[in-house]
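Journal club prep — side note

Before the paper discussion, L.F. wants everyone to see what a predicted structure for a comparable chain looks like in token form. Sequence:
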Amino acid sequence: MDFAGRLGGRRGASRGNVDEFGRERRDRPHGRKPYERPARGGRGGARGGGSGMGLGSRVGGHVDEAKDIESRLSSLIIKVGDTNSAALQNYLDALSVVLEKDYTKHEATVLKTFRQCVLELPWKVSVYATLAGLLNAKNGETGEKIVSMMHMVLGRALNSGDWGSAKVVLRFFALLVGTRTITPESIVGVLDVLLAPVGDGDCAATAGSRCFVFLAMSTLLWAGRSLSELAPEALEQRLGVVRRFVERS
């Protein structure tokens, strides 16, 4: 998939109360993982002292059964890699088979859970990149949908100045090069978008340009090995842009 030219738009607005990434600070009431957070009331649950009878009860339990399957699929995706086990690869293989089987019926749930896991569990991004690679190997259309979804997430993050989320998604894409889910040319195109503001040797260093170079450098940390094998000249050229920017900053 070609990312170049699709990440245009605003490079991030100026903010007053921002963190070291230029991202607006938000109060987080808890530091728990997504699956440890209090459950939200569903559409069919009791509200305001109602009877509590859900929609599933009125349609013979089919909705409840579908929700149960989606809940179990989400739980499997979220908890994969929680323990450092030697059997992780076998678990990922088995999970990819399960997801491939149920993906068509529960596509929205699988994609939403994937997105949330990459953004909220960044320490396991390599696990999710491996899982995405396995799904792509089994069905290229599934892999393409995962990549397209995360590409939209990246575009929104860059346009809003959410550098933390952008960094995590770029790391995910960098790892996907190693799984042959996206091509080296695609990640090189992303790097070119990030380095475009500093490509001109006369460009003055600004807070925005530093953020984009930081994102490019953090991406190269994860994509460098694959690019050194598959696109060494392109890698050296982008490293040269970063090097020259650092030297004159």
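L.F.'s comment for the group: Confidence is low (pLDDT under 50) at residues 8-16, 38-59. Keep this in mind when we get to the figures.
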